Amino acid sequence: MIVEVVAVGTELLLGQIVNTNAAWIGDRLAASGIDTHYQTVVGDNTGRISLALRSALARSDAVIACGGLGPTHDDLTRDAIAAVMNVPLDRDEEILADIARRFAAMGRRMAPSNARQADVPRGAAVIPQKAGTAPGLICPVGNRVVYAVPGVPSEMREMVERAVVPDLATRASERGEAAVIASRTLRTWGMSESGLADTLGEHIAALDTARAAATGVARGEGRGAAAVPTLAFLASGAEGLKVRITVKARDAATAQSVIAEEEALLREMLGESIFGADGETMEQVVASLLVSRALTLAVAESVTGGLVAARLVDVPGASSWFRGGVVSYASAVKHGILAVPDGPVVTPAAAVAMAQGVRRLLGADCGLGITGVAGPDRQEGQPPGTVHLGIAAPFLPGDGGEALSLRLPGDRAGMRQLTTITALDLLRRKLLRAGPDTP
Amino acid sequence: MIVEVVAVGTELLLGQIVNTNAAWIGDRLAASGIDTHYQTVVGDNTGRISLALRSALARSDAVIACGGLGPTHDDLTRDAIAAVMNVPLDRDEEILADIARRFAAMGRRMAPSNARQADVPRGAAVIPQKAGTAPGLICPVGNRVVYAVPGVPSEMREMVERAVVPDLATRASERGEAAVIASRTLRTWGMSESGLADTLGEHIAALDTARAAATGVARGEGRGAAAVPTLAFLASGAEGLKVRITVKARDAATAQSVIAEEEALLREMLGESIFGADGETMEQVVASLLVSRALTLAVAESVTGGLVAARLVDVPGASSWFRGGVVSYASAVKHGILAVPDGPVVTPAAAVAMAQGVRRLLGADCGLGITGVAGPDRQEGQPPGTVHLGIAAPFLPGDGGEALSLRLPGDRAGMRQLTTITALDLLRRKLLRAGPDTP
């Protein structure tokens, strides 16, 4: 199956919003083993939307049209699809009643324009709405199909997961393409892309050989029976490198067992460089390590200026293990409040002193201290990118502190992001090695 | 002129990176009064890139192709453009020598594959590179044109500003389209889109009338002589609403004076809701107000968990006016370190006490205190979205504190972003009213 995304909205063309919907759908389709060759953005104009849909249908099996399903006169996706299908729009009384009910439930009067959201191109199937008021559509065009989904990201995602991906899977299976495609993403921090490629090189070659052999065998039994995983590396900037395992198999149980086996192998080969899987974030992993060890945390930040604390409080329930932090931007604050000894403050010793100081000040079990130079100027003779991370924890020798010094690339903002995740990763590794019963 | 963007890169189709380049170019073109009807994303495949370029040239006057100019075998934009132009690629010895020099300057050996970056479709003009190694290209195709620029955002932006926009302006002027288009964006916080529309409604209607009249008069003198500004509202989420002034005029001096006059009018009508212009951020404005009043600042954050401090330190030179902050996530930290009186901590009084406490603790002139409920659960009986902001400053009556309480929408992350900018905006308004000589 080849699928493409047509995103509808003049605000996308004008750069007022960034097309994150196309990126999300692209990632979601890739995870299902579905190819995409093109994506298009088109403004709120019926003729141009129709032209974009026709061009897309000429080169792909299916099109996901995203946006333009709202109630205003600028919402023209329904009209454009009807033109491409060469059918009239019929008003669906059931949808209309449903929209009216939603308005009544919110205690609001339904404006007459909302009735347009109940218009359905003749011959299309409706994807009932769960959130919002605009239903989605499944519109056959010859042996191809146009899916219409809302442009609001949360509504789009819910509808793609619930209706579009399953419908695509059914169509793929009817064509004899692999019945089940499953994937799992392992998230790593601390290895370069070439380092990953070196470590996994032989294993990937072995998988390629096995896949070629299995495909040969499978040819007699029909396509898609070769349950050998494929690995892909995905760079995610300051969020690290992802290793995605994808497998096509004849049933879900086989796919899941192949993925589990491959994940175990990769965890053995990559060790603690793997910090999480799928949507898991570094701060969530740190949080669950702290919770499982019944430890609390406080952070003292200079160069990151509050970014580490801000990420930690993004984890729901943070108040049970996060005491808080001190942003010690002025050197006097480091010396006065955190009791960092007089002298230079961009040193490993100062980072450890910050960690010890904030831990004592806020009454936490563990402390994290972060000092460095964001630039553009040198500080204490050290160049931008210099970072010293300090950690203080009961499980370190003598209830003491340790430091890690490094030089990070990037501009002011980029270097801060890298420092933030590196600091969280340091804490994660120390907690992992400390084991669950250490304090 | 109608221009469209073709972004090249399989990583865009797979959603590994989001197409922020297309959004940036769309915004930049709109600011120059240039229309865009479509944007396309295409993977690293010569045939498909050529097809995308041909489709784009069939419906637009110019195409900006972004990405695929690197040295690897996946970088195919040059090849695709040569195919569309129906010309061979010539290796440019001057570019080759320049690339070799750049490698030598970094003390690195140039890999042979880098020579591909010196290939130029016959008949194309070169846009010399400033950063990076890939030069850009201006490729005539009949009476239309394809610009090729790198995919690295900073390199792309620099080249579009330096070479693409001026070249488009020259072409527009040769066609008799407006010679000069200038724009300025005023950034507002605190007004809704409908509030802006109400306040400016009569003025916008008057501009429309004046433009219609001027266009009628100008018709005798050639197109584009009507120097009446156009206003557009751009929603930017947690960064507020922008009001963009665009003017087409026969020369730059006229355009600038029309914009200055319109800006003065809008500033009169919108007052302190306008916090800045063009790229100016809320934190930069707060910083310059503090500097001009010779005041220092400290922040105490609960619900925002460090986001306010992190934005403040993004301003270069923050160390001269920002003392630091306390992230008082645990209530005990609020009572213990910041001396917030015992009792509930999600109250206006607690917010002011936090501001007073952090100001005293870190030795700053002004303090900002932020408490609230991020959710998903209620806290102290108050629903998610509840926010209390406290400010303590020498220019407030009796050297005292003031609070602002509000209820903000959004999920955990969205509500935090809104709280952050609202807190900075509160400080900005108080500093503005205090005048430059108050402390």
Helices, strands, pairings?
The structure is a homodimer of 439-residue chains.
Chain A (H helix, E strand, L loop, with lengths): L2 E6 L1 H4 L6 H12 L6 E5 L3 H14 L2 E5 L10 H9 L3 E3 L1 H13 L13 E3 L3 E3 L8 E6 L2 E6 L3 H22 L5 E9 L4 H26 L11 E6 L5 E9 L2 H19 L3 E4 L4 H11 L4 E5 L5 H6 L9 E6 L3 H6 L11 H15 L3 E7 L13 E7 L8 E7 L4 H23 L5
Parallel strand pairs in A: 1-2, 1-3, 3-8, 13-14, 13-15
Antiparallel strand pairs in A: 4-5, 6-7, 7-8, 9-11, 9-12, 10-11, 15-16, 16-17
- Report the mean per-residue pLDDT of chain A as an integer: 90
Uncertain residue ranges of chain A? 219-225
Q: What is the H/E string of chain A? A: EHHEHEHEHEEEEHEHEEHEHEHEHHEEEH
Main sheet makeup of chain A? 6 strands, mixed
CATH class of the largest domain in chain A: Alpha Beta
CATH architecture of the largest domain in chain A: 3-Layer(aba) Sandwich
Sheet with the most strands: spatial strand order of chain A? 2-1-3-8-7-6
Count helical runs of chain A.
13
Largest interface: A-B, 70 and 70 residues
- Overall helicity of chain A: 40-55%
Task: Write a short abstract of this structure.
Chain A is of the alpha/beta class.
Describe it for me?
- The structure is a homodimer of 439-residue chains.
- Chain A is an alpha/beta fold.
- Chain A has helices at 10-13, 20-31, 46-59, 77-85, 93-105, 153-174, 193-218, 252-270, 282-292, 307-312, 331-336, 348-362, 412-434, and strands at residues 3-8, 38-42, 62-66, 89-91, 119-121, 125-127, 136-141, 144-149, 180-188, 230-235, 241-249, 274-277, 297-301, 322-327, 366-372, 386-392, 401-407.
- In chain A, helix 2 (20-31) packs parallel to helix 6 (153-174) and helix 3 (46-59) crosses helix 4.
- The longest helix of chain A is centred in the middle third of the chain and has 26 residues, at 193-218.
- At the A-B interface, helix 2, strand 2, helix 3, helix 10 and strand 14 of A face helix 2, strand 2, helix 3, helix 10 and strand 14 of B.
- Strand 2 (38-42) of chain A pairs antiparallel with strand 2 (38-42) of chain B.
